[in-house]
């Protein structure tokens, strides 16, 4: 049976789909590329980076930006695959390990979070990377299930944390019931137990409750979770209070409760039109020897970093300003996908 490793397990690389002018980033491409360069620098200091470029001209541009930022090009591979957008967590491969600890890539469908945004190119990125050899000799398994990587989190031992509505969504998976989805998760990812949540929603979130904005497994028995800012809307405060109650009711396989670590929230941030932006410290990325945490220029940044450092002893916490990212509805974890050490990545 396959096993989906936890994010804190050893990694070989991180995958990024780089922004380009044909994406929604066009109006703020410089600010967003600066965030990507910060992430690239943090990753390549510890492991490899695989970057998806839109075409040959874009690849030359990305190479130039990386070189100008003194990022070691020997630690970077630049692949080509056309993209609608850059939310790698949701359109990239999920890598599982087989019984011999060999990596296998699972290619789930991606339909733009239930048809909210164009996704035809993004849906083909994993297959194109595999066909071009960028995933090494990794086998590829295709699944008909629409599943975004940001919708699930795992402890590497067959337990999966998710908000039910993001998978049991008629706009994503019409005709699928919970039993069928759990069976497909078992087949493709080796999931033995789904910890389904009903509550939790951030104002401004387009994903219908992605777990990587709400609650994250930090160790087999530890879950950190978002809490509302005092100035948050009543709807967000109610949803996050409900999430906290549900998490407190969860039990580990041995019957013990999980240790819960509350993460603060920055003061509410809004877009230029006044609409809310979903800023969450739960959207961090774990890499070798470090945790990359989104920052929002708020005093709560330091508090969240301190709490995450306690959850990940032996790893430094590096804050990366992600205010440019959340203008399009996501943050640091949403644009990245870790590739475990078992793979023979190019």
From TrEMBL:
Classification via Gene3D superfamilies: L-arginine/glycine Amidinotransferase, Chain A
Source organism superkingdom: Bacteria
SUPFAM superfamilies found in the cross-reference section: Pentein (SSF55909)
A Pfam family the protein falls into: PAD_porph
InterPro entries linked to this entry: Peptidyl-Arg-deiminase_porph
Keywords, ordered alphabetically: Hydrolase
Record PANTHER family: AGMATINE DEIMINASE-RELATED
Protein's name in the database: Agmatine deiminase
């Amino acid at each position: 049976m396959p096993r989906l490793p936890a994010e804190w397990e050893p990694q070989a690389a991180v995958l990024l789909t780089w922004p380009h002018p044909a994406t929604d980033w066009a109006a703020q491409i410089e600010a967003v590329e600066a965030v990507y360069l910060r992430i690239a620098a943090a990753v390549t200091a510890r492991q490899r980076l695989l970057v998806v470029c839109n075409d040959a001209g874009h690849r030359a541009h990305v190479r130039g930006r990386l070189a100008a930022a003194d990022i070691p090009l020997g630690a970077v591979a630049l692949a080509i695959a056309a993209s609608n957008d850059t939310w790698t967590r949701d359109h990239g491969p999920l890598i599982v390990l087989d019984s011999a600890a060999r990596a296998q890539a699972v290619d789930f469908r991606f339909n733009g979070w239930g048809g909210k945004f164009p996704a035809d190119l993004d849906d083909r990125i994993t297959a194109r990377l595999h066909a071009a050899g960028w995933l090494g000799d990794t086998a590829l398994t295709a699944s008909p299930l629409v599943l975004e990587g940001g919708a699930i989190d795992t402890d590497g031992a067959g337990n999966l944390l998710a908000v039910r509505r993001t998978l049991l969504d008629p706009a994503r998976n019409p005709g699928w019931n919970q039993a069928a989805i759990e069976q497909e998760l078992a087949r493709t990812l080796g999931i033995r137990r789904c910890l389904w949540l009903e509550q939790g929603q951030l104002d401004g979130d387009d994903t219908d409750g992605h777990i990587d904005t709400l609650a994250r497994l930090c160790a087999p028995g530890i879950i950190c979770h978002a809490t509302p800012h005092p100035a948050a809307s009543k709807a967000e405060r109610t949803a996050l209070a409900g999430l906290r109650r549900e998490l407190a009711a969860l039990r580990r396989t041995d019957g013990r409760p999980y240790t819960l670590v509350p993460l603060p929230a920055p003061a509410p941030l809004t877009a230029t039109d006044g609409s809310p932006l979903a800023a969450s410290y739960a959207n961090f990325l774990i890499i070798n020897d470090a945790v990359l945490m989104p920052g929002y220029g708020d005093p709560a940044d330091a508090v969240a970093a301190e709490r995450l450092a306690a959850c990940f002893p032996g790893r430094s916490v590096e804050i990366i300003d992600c205010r440019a990212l959340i203008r399009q509805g996501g943050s640091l974890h949403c644009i990245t996908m870790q590739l475990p050490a078992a793979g023979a990545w190019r």
